[in-house]
Design a protein that fits this description.
Layout lengths: L8 H26 L8 H13 L4 H8 L3 H13 L3 E5 L7 E5 L1 H22 L4 H16 L5 H5 L9
Antiparallel strand pairs: 1-2
């Protein structure tokens, strides 16, 4: 569905592209959820567990930054994960303001089971694109995510660091 904006061509193209981008991301996320590999986890809960699994203990602010979620949202997600016994908050003994999050053994068991299934579903959904298209999309998304902080050619012309040589 294109924009119905009647402004200049530059803005119309940007709005059309934005609509396609957000609809594609929403549809992709919806398909992932409907494939049911996360069990009772939300995408945010999965993101927290996956981050702690791969990066180790972190403070809530670090998790918030990694997942691009507000601190309020992450606090709620962490509260629910803690109630389920999947994460624990550990206060620093020297600075009680500092809290570190760790996976519990139950949390480690859940993410160890769920992550490979979710990764397979993501790979399956991404197979709508060729490997070259996936690399291009990855570079373009990174460029868009960085916005004006990088020069256009510095991102598009870089090799994808995640591609296998």
């Amino acid at each position: 569905m294109p924009t119905h904006f009647e402004g200049d061509e530059r803005t119309k193209l940007a709005l059309d592209t934005f609509i396609k981008f957000t609809r594609a991301a929403g549809a992709f996320e919806s398909r992932l959820l409907h494939r049911g590999q996360l069990g009772d986890l939300t995408l945010s809960q999965f993101g927290v567990l996956e981050t702690l699994h791969h990066l180790g203990p972190l403070c809530p602010g670090q998790i918030s930054a990694k997942l691009l979620k507000s601190s309020g949202n992450i606090t709620l997600v962490l509260d629910n994960l803690e109630k389920q016994g999947l994460v624990q908050r550990v206060r620093d003994t020297e600075d009680r303001r500092k809290i570190t999050l760790t996976l519990t053994p139950a949390g480690e068991a859940v993410i160890t089971e769920v992550f490979p299934r979710q990764a397979a579903v993501i790979a399956d959904e991404m197979s709508a694109l060729t490997p070259a298209e996936q690399e291009t999309l990855g570079r373009l998304c990174k460029k868009l995510g960085l916005g004006a902080s990088e020069s256009p050619d510095s991102i598009v012309n870089q090799p994808n660091p995640l591609s296998v040589s």
